[in-house]
Amino acid sequence: MSDEYNIYDTPEEVREEVKHEKPDLASGGSTEKENNWDGVFAPLSIDDTGLIRNTKRYLMTGTQDVSEVAIEKGRSIATSLLKLGYTLRSTLNGDRDKLNAVATVAAMDKCEIYLPWYKYGSDEKLRRSAVLKQPSKTAYEIATKYSRVFDSLKPVVRAFIARDVHVVLGLDCNTPIDFLLCYSDDGAETKQEVSAKTGNIGNYIRLCDECNIPVFNLRKEGAIDERFKGFIKSINLQP
């Protein structure tokens, strides 16, 4: 297992946070426990027409090898979006997502934190302020459809992917981000463009593509200085 996923080596804490009572019909009690994510969930499609739009929420995320230029660009964008009243959805992934980390700092108090389990992350104050402390079953069902190998993954990895569904679609899986700002070496912005180089943000892009959420990859030429700036200007015009 690579260093990038060392946090997955501590699943005992995770099991304590996500286990729930399974009724023991023979004894009439609830003596057996299992993880919420045990078993295969039915894939759940999304009715794109029913999603609430213009939530003033966004996500900024990138692969672990994000460039310093992209990080500084992301910091500047996050500061500008704060002034426009946008709220960042944060993952507290730290060094595994430096782009989201710098945006979290720049967003200050205009930030919603989503956790894969309650004790995730080193900052206890931020953990307590999280709007999501454990993914819902609905998020798991959506993840089954939009992550190609979901059923074969370890439970802890599934928790991360289900959490990421909430990051895109909101606490109720019905209030999505207005747009995704991301960085990957291949510059992917659609599910057709996702490749091995897209890395851990591929699921974000697939889900956004399916839900008609605009994606702007900082690695792609013209994505920020032309298309994103034009997009922001068009949706923030005063009536």
Task: Write up this protein.
By secondary structure, the protein is of the alpha/beta class. Helix content is 36%, strand content 14%. The chain has two domains: 28 residues, no CATH class; 188 residues, Rossmann fold (3-Layer(aba) Sandwich), CATH 3.40.50. It has eight helices and seven strands; from the N terminus they run αβββαβαβαααβαβα. The N terminus is likely disordered.
Beta-sheet strand percentage? Answer: 5-15%
H/E series: HEEEHEHEHHHEHEH
Number of helices: 8
Mean pLDDT: 81
Name of the CATH architecture of the largest domain? 3-Layer(aba) Sandwich
- Report strand order across the widest sheet: 5-4-3-6-7
Tell me the overall shape.
globular
Q: How would you concisely characterize the structure shown here?
A:
The chain has eight helices and seven strands; from the N terminus they run H-E-E-E-H-E-H-E-H-H-H-E-H-E-H. It has about 240 residues and is of the alpha/beta class.
